[in-house]
Amino acid sequence: MGCGRKDDKASLASSQLSSFSHQSHQPPSTPASKEVWKKGGRMFSILLAVHLALLACTLVSSGAFEKIAVHDYDVFFLLTVMMLIVIIWIIFYLTGTSRCPDAIPCKDSHAGPIWLRGGLILFAIFSLVMDVFKIGYYSSFYSCLSAIKIIYPIVQAIFVVVQTYFLWISAKDCVHVHLNVTRCGLLLTLTTNLAVWMSAVTDESVHKAHSKLKKNMTEEFFRWIMRAGMRSSSAEECNCNSQICQIFKNGYFWLYPFNIEYSLFASAMVYVMWKNVGRLIDHHSHHIHHLKFRLFRRTFFVGIMVGLITLVSGLGVLILYEVQVNSSTESSKKSQALTMYYIFNIVCLGLMSLVCIGGSVIYRFDKRDMDRHKNPTRTLDVALLMGAALGQYAISYYSIVAIVASTPRDTISALNLTYALLMIAQHTFQNIFIIEGLHRQPPKEDHKHDSHQKDLYGLTFVNINAVSLRVPDSGSTLAASTAAGTDAIQPSDLLRSLAAPKKLNWRRKFLREMSMFLLLSNIILWIMPAFGARPQFDNDTELNFYGDSMWPAIVDICLPFGIFYRMHAVASLLEVYIMS
């Protein structure tokens, strides 16, 4: 991979270096033409990604149904080829940029923060465990399966390792070589992650639908339904009677949520890299804030304690819900589980909404300036928060219409209606709180405040009597400050300067408490639907109103976005916590 600059920003950088000596000979249309080339390169990579995404979406959705002559191993073959191409391109990128010293002249300090890369590694580890379980499961009866069923998890494990290493060391890069190839490679990586995400979501949804059907039917009738409608996995046609085979099967389905979140996290980081291709950063205007993560400093532990209580309580509710709904056929226990689930969520969502409103009120009195610099990472965070919330909005509004229009209305319907309304309110207030926090300037270093405060205290203790005795009614300035030739200091300004850091610390402490409580609460609200607590399938109101076909389709499409919203909110709230 050579070091030649082929288009847009790279040549623009070289032209800027010689612009002072050749300014009179510079054609006036050069910047515009280079900007057009930049947009043209981006457009070509976008078109490539759109076509690949549509192809993958078509195969994945077609492979979920029996009557369509597309099998799951066709989907696995396409995904395997895409992942192999991405692995080759990543090796090409890492090798080429390491050999060219001018390939990455600057880095985006806002891209790929340590907590986002740490979360990526955590999800990558669970994804690797899932791939190991898949390999063990498919190897149990390899004689009756296509070879691609075993090759796919092996390639996926290699893909996860290579991509995680690539994003860990290159997430901040602003590449200036082979721009069009880099843009296409990055969007191919993004499309591959989205295709893997679609496949995992579809596979998980089909598996849950099969489990609910199989629980209420005999084995022969279940197989007949599978032949008539939804496709069962080809592995289910083989015998999986051993204990180790069942462990592998149940294990990798429980680990699907981590793989789903890994794909989405990687997609977000790759998109920021794509936006930074060819970008020139002015270090004078692009402020770099070295923020330190101090979890147990400047807090009252109230937010952490209440958040941990909410987290532990939610785990208990999840376990009881799974036991009573999935392991029992009695309607009374099912109603008790739904009531318990709705009450917990109503209390949790109500507290979160109040905290978000309180945080927004505190921001009204925050004296920090707004950060108006160009920041692709923050722009993506806001877009993902607003976009992912639409999934839960859709489910809530569908539930509201079904509950209001249905009769009769019982206690569970009232709880479901309250839950849907609070879900809409909590998403709205939380988005406002997070977006305001992301657009605030980080606080100044504490030692600056401390040194300034020490000077003021020294001035106060030495001259406080002089201030009180010598200041006439006209409000003249301090004689000592005037004689020294410094700026004039009013007594009222002095007192405000002494009180300002204290007030600022109180606001910051409250914002930290609120951010930590919201962070832990979003974790449990992500865990509950991700690991099986989905009352949308267990509540008969929506199923009876919309039908057995329309309502599950709505939930299967919208719920993954709601689950992703929670995990993305956790990452954003962690950033708000650190910046407070």
TrEMBL record:
It is a multi-pass membrane protein. It is found in: Cell membrane. One of its GO terms (cellular component) is plasma membrane. This is OTOP2 protein. The gene is Otop2. The keyword Transmembrane helix applies. Belongs to the otopetrin family. InterPro entries: Otopetrin (IPR004878). Keywords: Cell membrane, Hydrogen ion transport, Ion channel, Ion transport, Membrane, Transmembrane, Transmembrane helix, Transport. Its main location: membrane. It comes from Chloroceryle aenea (American pygmy kingfisher). It comes from the Eukaryota. PANTHER family: PROTON CHANNEL OTOP (PTHR21522), PROTON CHANNEL OTOP2 (PTHR21522:SF35). GO terms for molecular function: proton channel activity.
